[in-house]
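Fold it.
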Amino acid sequence: MEDRQKIEKAVVISGDSIKTLLLICRYLRLHHNPTFTPKESEEISVFVKKVLESEL
């Protein structure tokens, strides 16, 4: 959860699409679990959607 908050702050500060995608990939790699639970998948979806909306 702490990592995600750091990434969200970085995303807000950077506003850079490529950097954002790399941060998301890094976050997913840090928590590399081949199968996400439905709750985790939902959290990731919400997070990615939030990031994409902040980019517009």
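Residues 38-55 form the longest helix (18 residues).
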